[in-house]
Specification:
Blueprint: H1 6-47, E1 55-59, H2 66-77, H3 96-106, E2 110-118, E3 122-129, E4 134-137, E5 142-145, E6 151-152, E7 164-168, H4 179-191, E8 198-201, E9 208-212, E10 217-221, H5 226-242, E11 259-261, E12 269-270
Parallel strand pairs: 1-3, 4-7, 7-8, 10-11
Antiparallel strand pairs: 2-3, 4-5, 5-6, 8-9, 9-10, 11-12
């Protein structure tokens, strides 16, 4: 048998133990470091006030008070996260996209809502309000509308030459603008800007509407191109003006109709 060097074996065992202790110590230090970093991040994000939202500003509000949105935001920011973490009043946790969707749905007067973070402590809410094209009235209520056919508000029913008013007297469960009427009406309103007192879609109408001026009304139909009807109307008035007396300065001579009917394509009927 070969002799065994006991001292050498003991030395190797001691060296192995030292390496293991050093390795374990490194792991412990590394774990403690990670825990410290995570704890520091948690403290900074959830318990310190370093990233608190301290300033909220509003741009573009004319028709709606900023107090409404301030209250909504405050309610949300004061909620807890996961029911136990202290608060959501943190610039990194505020969900700007949810606010944008919520405000746009709740207030159709806004064409767009954009929320931006301002440095570490502020929110800037930018609102783009819709510009009313006119007032669209149903049987029991009126709303402003724009070129996107979006309805909002509750203006009083009125008539006049400054603001376009459409009275839709048809019985309907849905308060929405009929596209079949909207496009022709907008075309007429554009062509006769400043001359229209109001426009009426009668209760029994399927395809026609009446445009009231100061002296008479004009019947249009949605079954044919409204541009052709307007061209026919212009030719008709031009002929009447040619036939008028030079001394008559009314623009239409002695022609004072009760109504003009354009429902038959290329023809004009009047009374």
């Amino acid at each position: 048998m070969r002799p065994v060097n006991i001292k050498k074996l003991n030395y190797k065992d001691e060296l192995g133990r030292r390496h293991r202790r050093a390795f374990i110590l490194k792991i412990v230090v590394w774990v403690l470091g990670v825990v410290a970093v995570v704890a520091g991040i948690i403290y900074l994000l959830f318990f310190s006030r370093l990233f608190d939202i301290r300033e909220i500003s509003f741009n573009g509000l004319d028709m709606v008070s900023s107090d409404v949105f301030q209250m909504k935001i405050d309610e949300n920011l004061n909620q807890k996260i996961l029911k136990f973490l202290p608060r959501r009043n943190n610039i990194f946790f505020v969900n700007t996209g949810n606010f944008e969707k919520e405000f746009a749905l709740a207030y159709p007067i806004f064409k767009s809502v954009d929320i931006q973070r301002k440095l570490l402590h502020g929110l800037v809410l930018n609102f783009l309000e819709r510009k009313p094209t006119g007032v669209w009235c149903f049987k029991d209520s009126c709303s402003y509308f724009d070129n996107d056919k979006v309805l909002w508000g509750q203006p009083a029913k009125s008539s006049g030459f400054i603001f376009l008013t459409i009275e839709d007297d048809r019985q309907t469960d849905k308060k929405q603008i009929d596209d079949d009427f909207f496009k022709p009406i907008m075309e007429v309103a554009k062509s006769m800007s400043g001359e229209i007192k109001n426009i009426i879609i009668s209760a029994d109408s399927f395809n026609e509407f009446r445009v009231y001026t100061a002296d008479f009304y004009i019947i249009f139909t949605t079954d044919s191109d409204v541009k052709n009807q307007l061209d026919t109307l212009k030719i008709f008035f031009d002929d009447k003006i040619k036939d008028s007396s030079p001394a008559d300065l009314s623009g239409q001579g002695g022609f004072h109709p009760q109504y003009i009917d354009l429902r038959i394509d290329g023809r004009v009927y009047y009374k």
